[in-house]
Amino acid sequence: MSTLHYVTTNPGKVREAEEYLGADAVTQFDFDYTEIQADELGPIAAHGAREAYREVGEPVLVDDAGLFVEALGGFPGPYSSYVEDTVGVDRVWNLASDEEERRAYFRCTLAYCDGAEFDASPDPIDRDDRVAAAAAGVEEDEPADDAEPGTLPVKLFEGAVPGTMVAPRGDGGFGYDPIFEHDGTTLAEMDTERKNAISHRGRALEKFGEWFAER
Predict the structure, then answer these.
(1) What kind of architecture, by CATH, is found in domain 4-212?
(2) Cα–Cα distance between 93 and 180 in angstroms, integer?
(3) Which residue has the higher pLDDT, 15 or 180?
(4) pLDDT computed for residue 135 by the predictor
(5) Cβ 108 vs Cβ 95: under 8 Å
(6) Residue of 64, 114, 123, 177 with catalytic role
(7) In whole numbers, what is the pLDDT of the chain averaged over residues?
(8) What Rg value do the Cα atoms of the chain yield, rounded?
(9) Ranges of each domain in the chain
(10) Would you say the pTM of this structure is higher than 0.85?
(11) Does the active-site annotation cover 64?
């Protein structure tokens, strides 16, 4: 089987992937793919996976993640990294603190591409940057959609962690971890093992790992 390339500059993501997929199953691939602008994570990750697959020619895994605050209409969402760099975590908390309802989610979408078609399954398949519900209720010999010939299909796997926006607490983690509380503890107050056990990326990796084992 070809090597599975996790496209990231963050070795921590690769270590987390190894926990779910095995130490010999995945390798880091440092590739600066084009990050398109979109209001959802799926199209961003899918575009990156297609571009990365065309670069390396072997199976690739790309992720995109973000913090979604319900009372702020899902902001910062797919723009989380940009907002962190330009607006800052403290200002995001200031916005959320003005709201009575402070529910939020960390979400991650993994996109897998290996240049081949996929069997129907309950997980979504993205074709040409459109997320299509893959196969529930569709007959096996019926096409999942009308994608143009040559389009690279991408398999998407999603994970999410529910939480609450709170005033900054904790010295660990990074990014929005100090203002995101899960089960009474901010992510910045958790050690790495506990954080990885409940992480949105880990939940997406678990789904992917179960499917990939049958691939």
Answers:
(1) Alpha-Beta Complex (3.90)
(2) 9
(3) 180
(4) 29
(5) no
(6) 64
(7) 86
(8) 18
(9) 4-212
(10) no
(11) yes
